[in-house]
Amino acid sequence: MGRSRMTPERESELYHAVLDLLGEVGYDALTMDAVAARTRSSKATLYRQWKGKPELVVRALRHVKPHAATWVDTGSLRGDLHAIAASTDDCEKEKSADLIGGLIHAVRDDPDLYEALRELMIEPGIEELNAVLRRAVERGEVAADSPALEFLPHMLVGGYVTRPLVEAECVTTAYLRRYLDAVVLPALGV
What we know:
Elements: H1 8-25, H2 32-39, H3 43-49, H4 53-64, H5 68-71, H6 77-86, H7 90-107, H8 111-138, H9 152-167, H10 173-187
Helix pairs in contact: 1-2, 1-4, 4-8, 6-10, 9-10
């Protein structure tokens, strides 16, 4: 895609507008027409930059989600995971969890959204976590054959998704740190 024609500032502005609109109307009701109107863009410009609504929405989510695992290296697995948990403020975590929760429902009926999520968010996120885990294994903190290693992404997603459902509470950095210390790290043998 011809992404070079849009400035990074304009792209960021557009992504934030998409997420605001997504939060207001939900994925199913979000249209490229509405995005064009909200961002004072033409639909042609949007389609030149992104294949369609699924890619635009996932790239917007990825834009505001920090890529912490690629730059965090505190020297310990606990430190790395705590730093990742703290890398987004609590309000953004809550908003992002709500948006992702809505997308989980939409994914069932939209294979293009599922593909965009896998390609642009899930697989890169798993690769980032694998980098953190490789360092932990190299340091001897986690056994290379630990059966819990393959479930780290599941455990982390669980921390984000279940608290609002089970406790009707938002996900905070303090909560994530307690969750990491009580569930994730013991499962990994740390």
